Amino acid sequence: MKTKTDRNTNNDQPRMDMKYLMFDLEATLRERDSYKNALEDETPFAIAIDCGMKVAAQKAIK
Predict the structure, then answer these.
(1) pTM score > 0.85 for this model?
(2) Contact between 51 and 28 (Cβ < 8 Å)
(3) pLDDT at residue 10 in the model
(4) Which domain holds residue 17?
(5) How far is CA 18 from its chain centroid?
(6) Which of 2, 8, 32, 48 maximizes the CB count within 10 A of its CB?
(7) Which of 32, 61, 29 minimizes the C-alpha distance to 45?
């Protein structure tokens, strides 16, 4: 017979998986919007800066 703790443990993994998938989806949508805005603005280094590669963008500008 399963105890209450066993049932909770079995339910925790799908819940955590769903939280991770929602987090990943939100991050992907933000990244997509960032790329889209950079392309619409036609700023050549905006994509690199928005993606967190500020150092690479600064080196390319120099």
Answers:
(1) no
(2) no
(3) 76
(4) 4-61
(5) 14
(6) 48
(7) 61
